[in-house]
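Throughout our pipeline, every protein is held as a single compact record rather than as scattered files. Such a record has a labelled line for the sequence and another for the backbone structure tokens. The remainder of this section carries one protein's record, kept here as part of the documentation:
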Amino acid sequence: MQSHGIYASAAAGIALNGTAGAQPGANGFSSAPAFGAADNCPPYRPHESVEPRTDFRGQGIGLDTRVFSNGTPSTLNGQSDGLNDVSPPTDGDTDMPLLSAVTSNSSGSPTTTRKTKQRRNKPTLSCLECVERKTKCDRSRPCLACVKRQSNCDYTAVANLIATAGKNSDGSSRARYVTKPPAKIRKMSTASSLTSAGTTDNGWASIDSRAHTTPKGQMSSAASPYLLSNVPYSSATPSNVFGMGTQHPFSNYWTCQGGLPEVISVMPSKEQADILIAKYFEAVDPVYPFIHRRSFYADYERFWASPTEEKHKTDAAMMALHYAIFALGTQFLQYPGYEERSQTAEFYCSAANQALRLYSYLNRTSMRAIQAMLLMAYFLMNDNHASDAYAWAGIHLRQSYAMRLHRDPDIVVPEASVIEKQQRRKLWQAVFFHDTFLTVLLKLPPTATHSDVPVESLADDNELSNDGIDFDSGAHSRVENLMSISVIAPPEDYIPLPPPMSHHMVDLATAKSDCAYIRSMWHLGNLVQENLSSPCSLSLPLTHSVRHKESLIAAFKRLYKSFPSHLTNLDHLWLQQQAINNPRAARQNLFLTSNYHHCLMLLQASENSSAGVSANIRAALEAAHEAIWAFFKLWALFETEAAVWWVFQHRAFEESLLIAHLLSKEVGSSEGEGANGKALEGICEKAKEDVGRMLGIMERYGGDLEMHRTRKEVLREAFEGILV
């Protein structure tokens, strides 16, 4: 054990009470407090027992150590306190001067003999960055401190030699393995950070970076200079993550005691609710068809027909689903102004959130609850809260896993009806699709990556089956709480469905068309998640060789050719006819076209110079043209909806910005290259017109939102830099 009282205090001439020159106590001895902190020590009281304490090194040292006039340390009870057995601190333990044993002079005052301070003779094992900053280093490679501050972690040759010897001797290593992009990518990231101080290594603008970025539209540090990942373009505050949506998404209008009756009390009238439900099934259900219409309407009509007392006992998850549909339906209505529509829709979404809270959505779930949360995520995106939607989606995705929607229903629920199994497949596809394509836009890693549900199991025969049609499978949908008794409890009896009305039913042709659309989007999502989502989230090249890029492009094109013809027809006149005769199919065509060609554009524009992979400028411009024209067609055919869909607007903005960068850089550098320059002449003029058209449309939607204003400024500046 070590004692610092006999080394420091005695040499300073500090007496028992910590004041210089104090006289010895009445009993002829004085005390030397450890490290001179006498004012923290109690005064000596004879015959009083004092508990031992622990000094800063965690070693037990008695508080009542005494030094007699002859210099002999002792304790009150006359027993040795162990200080004589303690050797001075060794070199490397402390930098304090080492003192000899305590002696006394002729006046009785204790004196000491100072030794020469010994120099440190140990090799520096910490990394150079931590030594320079004087911070703690855990000596891993890289150390945790350097990982946190994102600095280089270098060690001396001696430190590396010792670490290597230790690894070889015991077979273990303290190295910390961090996934990093290749050296080529890291160099590009470093260069990008010099020109855009507000961009982090994954391309997102930092919290207070908007005022420092240069210029607007600065590209991120992705593997290819054309894969833009800082596209939110908004003034960020410390409270938002991705620079979108600066207010709390769910305003609180609710009391603690109100409960579900309070939520039900703010329901719109039956006539208004009918309008909102109809608008949802007109505008939203065609592109995200995962709700069983007849079951939903059965619940809906039964609720309105119930007395007030019965309404207050309604399933809270069902009320959340109703309010989520009300919120989305309100977004697609033609209100006089953006603010009025937004406030009404946000109120309904707040009611949906309150219903989910009353349902306890964090510790149990059901198909209704997941459906409601998924629709709320799309609502938040349309309401300029994409960052909140991303965080919110993490909950319903994990609840989907908990409910085992990612598993083949023939395996996990073999006793379920055909219709219930089909609804489980549809809901998992909707969750998977939302996660995959939102993460592509935000350049974040996907999460819905584990599933054994076969795409082809979503068959037309299952959709047209009558097995289970006579019962309301949604009324008592399976509730999963893996820690509750409900897992082993028998399910409740199903409630028979009432006779359907005409608008409650979906005709067979529409049901088959919806299945074909869902399967197509599912196949596309699988291909995108596997080949685009993860590399984009890590700023890695999409391809590692020329052959690999050609193979991926061929795979995308083969998949597109396998889709039904009514989903791949790009003729504008045909779509105009479809918008009149079959608007549901027209919407599905435009959504599939936009998603497919957007991903193909990213792939064509990708490059990997270290592997000899270059961007195919012409093919990228052609894919961008088809993708952005899907938005133009949506605007021409369904203008109100085009002004609401955030995902469509966001993709179109990315596409127009990438076109502008291609035209301002690569095309300008290829002028005068003979055949290459002439081959781009026609496509360049068309591409420039696309950017100009997008700027014109952006003037007609978005209101006075700051993010939208910033996007327009960014795109206008990029448009002015086009060289053709």
Observations:
- The first helix runs from residue 5 to 8.
- Strands lie at 53-54, 60-61, 66-67, 73-74, 103-104, 110-111, 471-472, 495-496.
- Residues 541-721 form one domain.
- The chain has 28 helices and eight strands.
